[in-house]
Amino acid sequence: MSNLIAKQYEFAAHASAVTCLRVGPKNGNILVTGGEDRRVHLWAIGHADPILALVGHTTPVQCVAIDQPEQLVVAGSTSGTLKLWDLQQGKAIRTLMGHRAAVTAVEFHPFGDFFASASADHSVKIWDVKRKGCILTFHHANVDVLRFSPDGKWILTSASTGPPDVRLWDLNGGRLVHQFAHDAPVVQITFHPRELVMATVAATGVMSFWDMDTFQRISCTSDLPPDAPLAAGTRMVFSEDGTVALALAPGHVTVWEWEPVRLVDAVSVPYLTAIDDAVLAPSGTHLVVVAHVDSFVQVFQLNVTHLRPFRSLAASAVHDYQPHHHHHPHHANYAPAPADPYAAPAHPPPPRHDLPPYARPPPPGAAYPYAPSAPGMTAPPPSPHYPYNAYPYAAAAPYHGQAPQPPPRAQLQ
């Protein structure tokens, strides 16, 4: 277990209970949380002080989402109000009203300026950010799970009440296309990174894999013997190439092949008591897993190279990067791979010109460029686990005021 968990820590996220949280989908290095204190906080994973405090809601925040470029955050409240923030500007740019009850889920469209919201009023709405309004409404019980298809043409919904199914809707008019029947309510919907395959996780922990061309089930973990390690509260993440699925459940992590379904590895992780969200880092070597307990957030970094089949892949990667003796007999510039998978590389990566200016990391050796100007505020150095990812949002609107101070709680050891 000690090898699998590379890092774990806990911090006070809000002055009252945390109600929702999401990890940034691009790199897994930022976190957005919402709380009963009506605030939304943006965090750099590895630090216990928020980068931004996003305010404006007048009732407790119920759900939150961050877009793929990590430039926009949307949050829904118990009053039915939605607020949209621009992280570069550090301020709310839209307040959208249309739901008559609490917002239960929000999700960004994979391309363009659209997002979806679901509410306890049994409606699902599609919003156009630029047109500042709702462009489509359809109804499906009390939806609490939303997911757009990777091509952006469909949206899938799952409700905690009514028939336990996942419904597929055509965004061109809101037509119901198909219903995927399940034995229990679905708590997560995700997609294969390279194929048109959908994966669903039921409240019982059972995972199903679906062909989105034929809408047929490919495989299901309920087909395994009764002693298979399935549990309620499971979250699933595909590997980088999609060949296996990692299932994170309270107390253990399992790895599955999905065509046909087969258990590959299982590891006990007692500290992993709850999972709210998980993102595989771009390196494919570790998972960022987050959970909340009362007003605290727990963050785990799991080194998946200690699991099969990642163990053999990591070994082959190290072998591939051995120096070529016949070309470089003295190996003066060769730097062996660090033993710590999160240690800084020997040489910084090349600059990324595809990023917007505010998100580009500083050149090696440069002074910290995002130090906030608010009196009394000092910016901590970048996390050693993400040495080339500085704070892209602090320059726009640094966090003002004191960090949240909930009742004391014992720290994880």
Automatic annotation (TrEMBL):
GO terms for cellular component: katanin complex. Keywords: Repeat, WD repeat. It comes from the Eukaryota. One of its GO terms (biological process) is microtubule depolymerization. The keyword Repeat applies. Residues 321-382 are annotated as: Disordered. The keyword Transcription regulation does not apply. InterPro entries: WD40/YVTN_repeat-like_dom_sf, WD40_PAC1, WD40_repeat_dom_sf, WD40_rpt. Gene3D superfamilies: YVTN repeat-like/Quinoprotein amine dehydrogenase. This is Uncharacterized protein. It comes from Allomyces macrogynus (strain ATCC 38327).
